[in-house]
Amino acid sequence: MGVLLPGLGAVATTFIAGVEAIRRGEARPIGSLSQMGTIRLGKRPENRFPRIHEFVPLAGLDDLVFGGWDVFPDDMFEATRKAAVLDAGSLASIEDFLRSIKPMKAAFDSNYVRKLSGPHVKRAAGKADLARMLIDDIERFKDEHGLERLVMVWCGSTEVYLERSAVHATPEAFEKGLAENDPAITPSMLYAYAAIKCGVPYANGAPNLTADIPALIMLARENAVPLCGKDFKTGQTLMKTILAPGLKARQIGLAGWFSTNILGNRDGEVLDDPDSFRTKEESKLGVLDTILQPDLYPELYGDIYHKVRINYYPPRGDNKEGWDNLDIFGWLDYPMQIKVDFLCRDSILAAPIVLDLVLFMDLAKRAGLRGIQEWLSFYFKSPMVPENHHVEHDLFIQLTKLKNTLRLLMGEELVTHIERLPPGLTGE
To answer: For 55-97, how does the pLDDT look when each residue is reduced to its tens digit (9 = 90+)?
Structure first.
C-alpha cells in the first residue's frame, strides 16, 4: 500500500523514519491507537479486549511504501536530519532506507505560503496542468512500486486564510476554476483533487480549507473516496479537548483561557505570516465553544475570554512549548486558576496520528465508506462534518464514536456503557 505525503518536512519525515524503526523492531509505536490501543467487545464479564490492529483488518506496517512531494529536493535522510526532530542515533541504522526515498517536485505557490520557498517545484501553464501532473505522479508511483492501493495525507504547511466561494460550490465550478486559474483554488486543493480523481483516500493534516468544500466533498462521494481533516490535534488543542470536557462535566465555570505557543520549526516560520496564522487561529479557537456549549450554560461559559497566540522562536525547533492560563470559578463564584505548561515535541505527537489515519482511511476505502469520515474527528482540531451537522470536539466522545464505528464495521455490538439497569428500575 502506498502512502503519499505532500510536504516532506518534520512531521512526514518523523513518521516515515519511525515506521521503519518500528518495522525493524528498534522502536515502539507509542501514541498510535491503531497499534497499541485496545477495544472492548461485548459485555464486560466476557473480558474481550483485543488490540485494535488484531480486531480490525488493517494493513500491516510491512506493507507500507512511502512517497511524496516537497519544495526541497533532499532525500528523506537529509530532510529528517534537517528537521532535527530525531537524533543521529535514531537514524543510524535506517539511513540507507531513508536515502532511497526522494521527493517528487511540489505543486507550490508562495502566494499561499508566504514564508516558504524552494527550488523543487513544478512548472506549468496553469492549475489544470498542475493537477494533471499530480495525477500523473500518483499513477506513476503506483505503477513503479506495484501497489494495490494508496492513501494521501497532507503534511504540508498552513496556507493563507481562505473562505468558501462560488468556485468551491460544485465539481463543475471547481474544474472550470482550474482551467481559469482561479485564485481561490490553492495548491493543497490541487493535491486533494488529484487524489480524489485517482480514487485515493485523502486526509488533511493542516487547517487549510482544502477538501472541506462542497465541490470536493461531492466529487469524493461520486468517486467512492473517504475524506477527513482538518489540522492534526497534537499539543495545546489536545490539552483543551481533555481539560474542557472535565470542567464541563463538573459544572465548573470558566472566565478566560489564554494560550500561547513557542515554536521554531518550519511550521512556526510559516505561521509567522499573519494570513497563515489566521487559518490556524480559526482552527484552534473553535474548540471551546463547541465543547462548553455557552448557549446551554450561559452562567458558566457565556462570557469566556479566549485568546490564542503562536510565536516563532527558532531556538526551540520542533520542541514546542504550549502555555495555558485558565481562570475558572467554582462554588459561590470563588475564583481559581489552572496553569498548563506543555513542553511537547510537535512531530513526535503528530507522527502516530499520520500512521493511524493511513491505516483507518485505507480500511474505510475497503469497507466502501465514502465522503467525510466523521468518526476520525478524534485526530483533528477542526474536524470535517457533513453540512448542518454539529461538530464534536470532546476527545472522549470522539473516541467512543471511533471505536463504535470499528465495532459496527466488524458486526459487533455497540458499547453504550449501560449493561444493567439499577435494581429499582428492574423491579428487583
So the answer is: 999 999 999 999 999 999 999 999 999 999 999 999 999 999 9
Task: Please check whether residues 352 and 296 belong to one and the same domain.
Answer: no
Q: CA–CA distance from 297 to each of 196, 248, 253, 288, 325 (Å)?
A: 41, 9, 9, 13, 21
Whether pLDDT at 239 is above 60: yes
CATH number at residue 31: 3.40.50.720
Output the CA torsion sign for 276, 229, 254, 299: positive
End-to-end CA distance of the chain: 55
Q: Is residue 428 part of a domain?
A: no
Do residues 59 and 147 both lie within one domain? Answer: yes
Q: Which residue, of 318, 343, 368, is where some domain finishes?
A: 343
Residue 299: which pLDDT band, with cuts at 50, 70 and 90?
Answer: very high
Which residue from 238, 143, 151 is spatially nearest to 202, judged by alpha carbons?
Answer: 151
Q: For all residues of the chain together, what is the average pLDDT?
A: 94
Q: Which domain holds residue 246?
A: 236-343
On whether both 366 and 284 belong to a single domain, the answer is no
Nearest one of 123, 208, 213 to 177, comparing CA atoms = 213
Q: Which of 297, 324, 343 is the last residue of a domain?
A: 343
How many CB atoms lie under 10 A from the CB of residue 127? 23
Same domain, yes or no, for 361 and 339?
A: no
CA 422 to chain centroid:
41
Supply the pLDDT for residue 263.
83
Q: Where are the beta strands (DSSP E) in 137-241?
A: 150-154, 202-204, 226-229
Q: pTM above the 0.90 mark?
A: yes
pLDDT at 280 > cutoff 80:
no
The string of DSSP codes covering 47-83 is -B--BHHHHS-PPPGGG-EEEEEESS---HHHHHHHH
Q: Is residue 118 part of a domain?
A: yes
